[in-house]
Amino acid sequence: MKILLVCSGGMSSAIVVKALEKEAAKTGLALEVKSVGSGEFAEEIKKGWDAALVAPQVRHRLSFFQEAAAECQVPVTVIPPQGYSPLGGAVILEEIAKLLS
């Protein structure tokens, strides 16, 4: 499964990427995760992602991300604040499961 994370600059979500990869490894889920800044999202989403997750600090741009992703039929959701941390991997995996169900 390929998951794209978007934040303001692509840097703060690196911690979340590691937490998500760690949690996925625990459950045996094959997961590819990449983080990008909001300016890179529209191009990156075209590269075959299964879902996109929006960091809480850029949720005000959700409609922009949804429009860009809709062209590729990629679902988008905002990461809950409790998931946007080094220990939030399980919360984010739950959000991904809901998004893709």
Gyration radius (Cα, Å) is: 12 Å
CATH C-level class: Alpha Beta
Q: And the CATH topology? A: Rossmann fold
Number of domains: 1
Q: Order of strands in the sheet with the most strands?
A: 2-1-3-4
In angstroms, what separates the terminal alpha carbons?
13 Å
The proportion of strand residues reads: 15-25%
Major β-sheet, in short?
4 strands, parallel
Describe this structure in words.
With 101 residues, this protein is of the alpha/beta class. It has a single domain, classed as Response regulator (Rossmann fold, 3-Layer(aba) Sandwich), CATH 3.40.50.2300. Helices cover 40% and strands 19% of the residues. The chain is built from four helices and four strands; from the N terminus they run βαβαβαβα. The chain has helices at residues 13-27, 41-44, 62-70, 89-100, and strands at 2-7, 32-37, 51-54, 76-78. Strands 2-1-3-4 form a four-stranded parallel beta sheet, with helices on both faces. α1 packs across α4. The longest helix has 15 residues, at 13-27. The protein is globular, with a radius of gyration of 12 Å. The relative contact order is 0.24. The model has no long low-confidence stretch (mean pLDDT 92).
